[in-house]
Design goal:
Length: about 300
């Protein structure tokens, strides 16, 4: 007889793993699908300083602790990439590259992908000076001059990280003030080797086999400045990954999935948590909260559906 899980969770980040823990403790037959490492994007975060109870902990260490918690409960993981999610009556069908998984309910926890600058030849310079992960690639630019684009918490954290590796860091932001927390702003401003370039945007990349310099336009004066850099780190946020869904559900103007307070989407049996949903705050701690709420409601849904 074909196996049908009670619940399949797509994404093994903090939201997905928390959802799995709550589901397992509620007695659901649950499986988590993750295409990379347990922890997702937090594995690329050098220091997490705002997760209650830990003070400061590396993203990889926090992800490892969460994964160990799931394994202590014997929650199965499928390490594969999802191609398509379909609905067949009361059953949700998740098509991966290596197998197909069926379940009564699905929690979408696969987060969001990095946003690109959208300038000419950006793709050509990926791996040749452009990076979307400072903690992954920062060590490659030890002692060099680099630039970082962004204004949120992650951008500020990455700028601080890079300042301890690179000789100089240009922090470029298209507004006159940052969106990130004040404590991070203060730390950035106190770093002697971080130079702020505000009200500005990168308009062009120059270089033969790799980045040699970038051209930055002041959005007020329209003046262009050329900066010699060896690396350009892009940290301008993330966007929702919803292309794999073979059905329509309600989204907001930015493409994020709309949910109610119980993480329910406009489609019965489909829940959304973490960065992919229309949440006012995208942090590890709120993602975990989303996962707990979604699993609790999914448990109710599954029990009623299976009657």
């Amino acid at each position: 007889m074909e196996k049908i899980y009670d619940l399949v969770i797509l994404g093994g980040g903090p939201a997905g793993m928390t959802a799995g823990i709550y589901a397992k403790r509620a007695g659901l037959d649950v499986v988590i699908v993750e295409k990379t490492l347990p922890g997702g994007a937090i594995c690329n975060t050098a220091d997490v300083s705002n997760f209650t109870g830990f003070g400061t902990i590396s993203g990889m260490e926090l992800a490892t602790k969460m994964f160990e918690h799931t394994q202590a409960l014997n929650i199965p993981f499928v390490f594969d990439e999802v191609k398509k999610v379909k609905i067949e009556g009361d059953i949700k069908v998740v098509e991966c590259f290596s197998e197909t998984i069926k379940a009564y309910a699905v929690i979408l926890a696969f987060g969001a992908s990095v946003r690109k600058l959208g300038i000419d030849r950006e793709r050509d310079y990926v791996g040749k000076g452009i990076s979307y992960c400072a903690t992954c690639d920062g060590a490659l630019y030890k002692g060099e001059t680099v630039a970082l684009v962004g204004g949120g918490n992650t951008a500020l954290e990455d700028a601080i990280y890079l300042s301890n590796v690179a000789k100089k860091v240009y922090l470029i932001h298209r507004r006159d003030e940052f969106r990130g927390e004040k404590i991070l702003q203060d730390e950035v401003k106190n770093k002697d080797n971080i130079e702020l370039i505000l009200n500005s945007a990168v308009k062009n990349i120059v270089g033969d086999k790799k980045i040699e310099k970038i051209e930055v336009e002041n959005l007020i004066t329209r003046e262009t400045t050329s900066l010699a850099v060896g690396g350009l780190f892009v940290c301008i946020g993330r966007g929702p990954d919803t292309e794999i869904l073979d059905f329509d559900l309600e989204k907001d103007a930015q493409g994020y999935i709309v949910t109610d307070q119980y993480m329910q989407t406009s489609v019965k049996g489909i829940f959304a948590v973490g960065d992919i949903r229309n949440t006012p705050l995208r942090q590890i701690i709120t993602a975990c909260s989303d996962g707990a709420i979604a699993s609790t409601k999914a448990n109710e849904y599954v029990r009623l559906t299976k009657k």
